[in-house]
Write a structure and sequence with these properties.
The protein is of the alpha/beta class. The chain has five helices and five strands, in the order βαβαβαβαβα.
Length: 146
Amino acid sequence: MDDEPIVSSASSVKTPSLVKGTGQIMVVDDETGILFSTRELLEYCGYKVSAFMNGQQAFDEFKKNPNALDLVITDMTMPKMTGDILAEEILKIRPDLPIILCTGYSDRISEERAREMGIRKFVQKPLDSSDLTVLIRDILKETLCD
């Protein structure tokens, strides 16, 4: 038997770097696991997060104080109000509000159509945690510079 010390390979595994930030983000997704894990991730990164299970509920809350949000992240396919309709309604009130639209597969909307609507970013699910935090930071930094 070898008397070599056991070296953990954990130190050689690259852990994703999560970009921290500040601001108020609304997350909308009808999948409970995604909704709560995204909220937890973003809160860990320093954001204040309001989470909603459907677009109608999110829009009703948005209308109460449209200027409170810095960013909206919404799923595309949801009951009551889809993500594209939610984005459209929000952008009628606040055309400057950055929106990230997430989808697995949708024949209803394309990246080009989302851009035409004013949606800032169209992303495919699943989205890696570190990629999401970088995307949020870049969008918020871009928004502040406008």
